[in-house]
Amino acid sequence: MTAYGPAAGLRMDRRTVLALGGALSLAALAGCSPPVNPIATATPGPAPTGIGPRKILKATGLDTPWSMVRAKDGRILVSERDTARILSLSPDGNLMPLVHLPQVVAGGEAGLLGLEIIAASGEAEWLYAYLGTETDNRVVRMQLQGSGVGPVEDILLGIPRANIHNGGRIKQGPDGLLYIGTGDATDREAAQDPSRLNGKILRINPDGSIPEANPFAGSPVYSYGHRNVQGLGWDSSGRLWASELGPEKNDEVNLIEPGKNYGWPFVTGVARDARFVDPIHVWPSTADASPSALAIAGDIAYVACLRGERLWELPLPAGEPTAGGTLPGARELLSGQEGRLRDALLVGDELWVATNEGADSRIIALELPVA
C-alpha cells in the first residue's frame, strides 16, 4: 500500500490498515450502520416502454446509486453514494444490504462511488471501492465472503477530494490492472501536473503497487489533463475510452493513450493544438449529455448521462479515429424517460442502467441490441 501526492501524511503500514479495516467491516456487519430507508425489491418484469427500447425493471428503492458490478455468482453489487451502503441484488430480484462503510464521508459529489470486482488466484473475489473520507478520496478493497465481506484494506490513498469533480469510476482493464478516473477536485492547474493525482486516469496493480510499464516511473498516473473522468471502457481491440464532463460545454469521449495530455484546463473540445489530444466525440452543450458511466458492447459505447437525462449510443470508429465533432451514427435513447442516469453495466445480453434520482432511484435493463 502506498500513499501519493498531497495526502502523504495519510501513510499507514499494512498491519494498521488491516486492523482498522477489520474493525470497520465487523462493525458494519454487526448492525452498527445508521438507520437507512427500507429496501424495496422488484421481481424482474416488463416496465412501460414509452418510446425507445424495451425496458425491464430490476430494482426500486435505491438511494442515489453510483456504481454496479457483477459477481461471479450472478449477484449485482450496487454502491449508494450518500448512505455508504453496498447492496446486493440477487438473480431472483432480492435486494439486500451487503456492507456499510462508516469511513465514508459524503458531501456534494463525494461519497461511496465506483465499484469493481477482481478475481484473484483460486476462488477469491476482491471487491474494490472508490470512496471519499474526511480528508481524501481513496481506493479500498475487501474480499467477498458469502453474504458479507472481509476486512477493508486501503489500496491507494491521497486522491484530493472536493465538493465537486471527484471522478470515481474504477475498472479492471484487459491487462488485469485497475484503472481509476479522478476529477480535478476544483484545482484546475493540478490536472496538468503529473505529480498530482487529481485530473487523471490512474493505473495500479490490484495490490496497489505501481506497474513497471506505467508512463511515469514510480507513479500511478496513466494520462493527465482531465477535468472529471466518470466513464471507462475498452472496445473489442482493447482500446481504452473515457467519458469526461466539460465546463457547461464540450463534454467529451476520449481515446486514452498512456502518458498523453488531454488539455484541461487550457482547452476543452477540439483545440487542434499539438500539445494535447483532442476528443473523438464532443457534445457542445452539457444539456445534451453531462456524461457519467461508459459501457461498451463490442464496438458500441453506451454513455449514461446526468443533466442530459438520456443514454447515448455511440458506434466507435475502427483504426485511427478522426478527432472532434459527432461520431457518425450517434443516437439518443431513453431521452427524458428515466431522469438522470448514473451507471451502465453489461449483464449478458442486457444493458443495466441505474438512475440517479435520490431515494426514488431504480435499476432498469435494456435488451441488446436495442432497436
Automatic annotation (TrEMBL):
Tell me which SUPFAM superfamilies the record gives.
Soluble quinoprotein glucose dehydrogenase
Keyword check for Signal, yes or no. Answer: yes
Q: Which UniProt keywords apply?
A: Signal
Signal found in the keyword field: yes
Where the record annotates domain Glucose/Sorbosone dehydrogenase, the positions are 62-357
TM segment ranges:
none
* Signal peptide extent: 1-30
Q: What is this protein called?
A: Glucose/arabinose dehydrogenase
